[in-house]
Amino acid sequence: MLKLYYAPGTCALATHIALEEAGAPYEAVRLDFGSQAQRSPEYLVVNPKGRVPALVTESGTLTETPGLLLFVAQRFPDAELAPLSDPFALAQVQEFNSYLCSTVHVAHAHGRRGARWADDAAAIEAMKRKVPATMTECFDLIERKLLKGPWVMGEHYTICDPYLFTIASWLEGDRVDTGKLPRVMEHRRHMLARPAVQKAVAAEGTQIG
Amino acid sequence: MLKLYYAPGTCALATHIALEEAGAPYEAVRLDFGSQAQRSPEYLVVNPKGRVPALVTESGTLTETPGLLLFVAQRFPDAELAPLSDPFALAQVQEFNSYLCSTVHVAHAHGRRGARWADDAAAIEAMKRKVPATMTECFDLIERKLLKGPWVMGEHYTICDPYLFTIASWLEGDRVDTGKLPRVMEHRRHMLARPAVQKAVAAEGTQIG
Lengths: 209, 209
Hints:
- Two copies of one chain form a homodimer.
- By secondary structure, the first copy, chain A, is α+β, with helices and mostly antiparallel strands.
- Chain A has helices spanning 12-22, 41-46, 65-75, 87-109, 121-146, 160-168, 182-192, 195-204; strands at 2-6, 26-30, 54-57, 60-63.
- Chain A has a four-stranded mixed beta sheet, covered by helices on one side.
- The longest helix of chain A has 26 residues, at 121-146.
- Chain A is globular and about 50 Å long.
- At the A-B interface, strand 4, helix 3, helix 4 and helix 5 of A face strand 4, helix 3, helix 4 and helix 5 of B.
């Protein structure tokens, strides 16, 4: 039995959805970020980074969304969540997910976690102010170039889709004009029609859109 | 014939080394960041993100280091650069590389590319000031927990090693006390003893350490 540590509103939703899509046996454990549970001594034993997601497997604990998503796809191959045997196609999947984790998630994080990168209160406010512009720039590239449609990689649903859906769920909070992202919004609608997505979203109690 | 676009001193060195390790047929094309060649109309056709690395393959162009490294490992399996058929072990590789791209590289980038995340000159200076602390924190975790030794994943050299080596080559410039990172520095020495590393480093004309 796998165990997923998550908190609502975080990127852990991507792995949560992927586990549902895969029909994986798993338990989801909610951490209360309000009481800083991710920094508790008990949790730091699970994940020394003090963040979510973390996935406890039969072989050990994994963190970092692109790694977790690849694990789910490869561990449950019948779900066909990634083109595992095609080096170019699999690299495209990891390319997209790397862009989400290293550029898009990072752009978003400057609105809430600026203290990671500066100590000065005015600097943290300056970072917050730029989030709508940086997130708009990232999603403009996704809208125009990266999202093939209907799914990220085209006709086949992959581990890119729950990850894009999760990060796109932050757009309204980041004050991005979603009216200019019709293809991303259509992707959201397609995602919300999937039972696995509905189940993970309901379990987390997350409000999308 | 693969074509790798790179600039000296960037994370493209990781893929450059991996291509050498794999014995891949490739051509390395240097972009002159001084003249903003990564923003030229010609290059934006290759990579709309305007960054390096980009790898032109027989199937199309790939970007983002964790995707490129996985591609090299899977496309040239005889080099055994990743545990491709073990879902947990491969996820650990992607976990480590995701941490490098989304946390460590991002921490470093605040010293030179702060304008990505704030428009205010004082805020950009505040970000620069914090780089030694954030990079020290990242590498403390790598030193204590993530680097198994002698290679990142233990006894087997993988695509994590050129990536760690590349990002660790920025430590002195980021004013991190490498005296407190003996295992990371030992990893650097092991890397510099490999012919593939020597060849890529010499081709880029990069000074390490």
